[in-house]
Amino acid sequence: MTDICLIFEVHQPLRLNRNFHIDLLLRRDATKDELLNLYFDNGMNKDILNRVAEKCYFPANKIILEEIERFKGTGKEFKVSFSLSGVFIEQCRMWRPEILESFSQLVETGCVELLGQTYYHSLSSLYDPDWSEFIAEVEMHREAMRGLFNYSPRVFENTECLYNNSIAKAIERVGYEATITEGLRRFLGWRSPNYVY
Length: 197
Hints:
The chain has nine helices and five strands. It is mainly alpha-helical. The strands form two sheets. Strands 1-2-3 form a three-stranded parallel sheet. It has a two-stranded parallel sheet with strand order 4-5. Helix 8 links the parallel strand 4 and strand 5. Helix 3 packs parallel to helix 5 and helix 4 crosses helix 5.
């Protein structure tokens, strides 16, 4: 079998509520749940998560688990990496915890690596001059991985594979050993994007 590196980025954004009513926002006694429903269309978010769970998450995780089991003990294990956003995890906890159970089952095989990322799958690495928001999100995500999967990621994947030297220093500062980036020809020149740098 040819060596390839399969990395699955798993994120479900929160869709904004198109029927935003400012009058609820102005109320001083609005609950947290009311405010969340004011900003986000949780009916749509739940429907989409359910649809993607049935058409993608469950079937894909089943196939991956079957392949892991098929290659165990052959000397050439089948391994994959997942980058699960905190927003995805929160939605699963609210509406479909069995999705997280399917990922836990994969992690327990020892053939799955979980990657670190920003909790909210945000662009904080681009706009945060003192890195406080970025680092806080990275630490939140790390804690979520520990709490949910008893796993401490060592490799980082920034939102949309954003990368520059400043981001690299911030990632290193919080203890990551490596990062996944995109190989852009204009930056790499003659170097191959398939090489591990």
